[in-house]
Each structure stands twice: as structure tokens, then as C-alpha cells.
Amino acid sequence: MKTALFLGALNRGGAETLVYDVLRRASSLPFDVCCLYRKEGDFSDEFHGTGVPFIKVARTGGIFRYLIELRKAVLRNHIDIVHAQTPSNALVCSFALLFTKVSIVTTFHGFPFSDASKLYRNLVYRRSRRIICVSNYEKSVYENKWKLPAPNKFCVLYNGIDFSKLDSPSSGSSGLVTDKSTLNMMMVGNFRSGRDHLFICKVADELNKRSIPFNLYFAGRREPSEPQRYDSCVEFCENHGLSKNVHFLGGRDDVPSLLRQMDLFIYASEHDTFGIAVLEAMASALPVIVNDWAVMKEITGHGKYASLYDTNNVEDCLSKIITLNQKRAADADGFKEERSRISKAIREKYSIENHIRGLYDIYKSCLK
Question: What Å distances lie between residue 253 and 42, 113, 166, CA to CA?
Fold first, then answer.
């Protein structure tokens, strides 16, 4: 069984990181794997360093030529399954691989297409042997909105995380936190739709009004496509006298090291389908506070592994922060032991190894 993981550009992103972590384990995978892609990106060196065969099919000369070249590449390399990481790539495959025995698997990392794209949606659905959703919540949204036949095409496979990187020393962030007497908090994620950084700034303002010493760190870049999300946070902090307490670190590649210096991880979701940053924080034995968005309930065991606050409720979030901070101060050893148990549970459930075993089962079912 030979599988091609299909990407567009080799850029850094959630789906790309997941594929990269799978490819790094190519020598121990229970299936043969290669990578199909269209163009290079800022993650190219790392990808090619995995030693896995990479098949580049550039989109040149128009869409029909691209489809023909893609079809030739798949058949020439005797690929049994093409695993598309986006619906658009699955749509391309549905045309390029017509009248072949190649199976298409599609992972949905986001929410359903609009009603206007019904033809697009149905093509992807009908041509995919399996559609992977990254959470039970996401699967339920698709099933309820689409109401399509053969619901067994949908399956759930949690994204896998390479937790070993959380334990590796990182350079560039040592000494970021210099005042251990204050409450040091962090949110990780680029400033784009799906995350509500401004809400966290409002919570910081309430902490400041109550004279609670704190530092809040945002690790995430300003997105050129949505600059207002970053700019509004900076403006809010300047207007409310928070510039000395709230720190905008930009995009970082040393997040594990940053997490080790924090007392608390805080997050606000608008419409996530998964929560890699939240899981990494819990796996780092950090106390986590996150809003009660459906998928966050799912990955935190409905509050078993993290503290959930009412979405968009500043006072409730503030209350959770104060309670956790008091609990940490009252029983430091017990608090640390509890976080260690949570870390162990998260690492067992959401490991990249579990993800790979799930992939293998799905691929096998496609060839039956």
C-alpha cells in the first residue's frame, strides 16, 4: 500500500506540521509514503530533510495540463491512495484521477463549504473514499449541515502531536520572564479569524484594574490578510495603559521553551475545529483556561483537564484566573502533581503515534 500525502505549498501551518511529523517517521510506518506537492515554501528544507520521496507537480500551463501531469505522476509512481489535506486539493484529485483505481482520502481541517458551493461540495464528498474530521464536533457539524448519504464515509481522527518537541531545549527565549513574582500568562496563535485575542486583552485590562501583577505574552504573527486583528489589540493595550504588561512576541519557533516559563496558558476561540496550542499547553503541565467552545470541551474532557469559562464572559474568565492562581499558591506541590497527571493523559491520547495507527486503519479500509 503506497500513500501520497498531498499538499499545496510546503509552508508552515497546522496541516503541514502534521504531515511533516508523519513523514519524519517514514522508516517505521506500516505503509509506504511519499509527498505530492505543487510548490516550495518556508518549510521546504525541513520537509526534504525527512528523506521521503517528494513528487512536485507544478501548476503551470493551465488547469487541464496540471490535471494531466498530476494523473501521470500518481500512476507512474504506483500510488494506491492520495490523501488530500484540503477540500480544494481533493477536488483537483477527483478530476485528475477519474476512471482510475486510486482512492482519495480527504481531511477537513475547517468547517463546511457555503451552500453556494453545492456542486464543489458534492464532488469532494462522492469522490472521497473516506473523509477525516479532526474532532467529533466537526463531524457532527458536517453531518447535520450536509445530510448526505453514506454517513460512514465520515470518520474522526484527532490530529497527532509530536510531544517530544515540548521537552527539547530551545534557544532564543531564555530569560524572557524575569519577574517570577507576577502571574505570567501566554496565548499562542497567529492573529486571524478563529481566535479572539482582543477578548484576552479585555481580561488583562480587568486584571490591571484590580491591581493584580501580571504579564501577558502573545506568541503569534500579524496576518497580512487580517491586519486589523493584531492592530486592534495593540491599540487597545496602548489606550488602556497595558503596554508594559502585554507583550506581542510575533511568530515564534521556540514556543515549547516559552511555555516552560509561564504560570498559565489562556485561550479564546471563535470557531476552532481542534486545539493544538491548547493541547500542547496541557501536555507541558501548564494550567489552561479556555472558553467553552464545543471542541474545547471535547479535547479538555469537558473541563477535566482545563478550566472552562463562558465564551465572551470577561468576568467569568477573570474569576477562573484568580481561582487557579490562588490554588497554585496554596498548594504548589499538589498543584504540580495534578498538572503532571493531566500532561500524561494528554500525551497518551493525542500522540502522533496514535494518529499514525488511525491513518493505517483508514487506509486499509479504503483498499478492501
Answer: 13, 32, 12
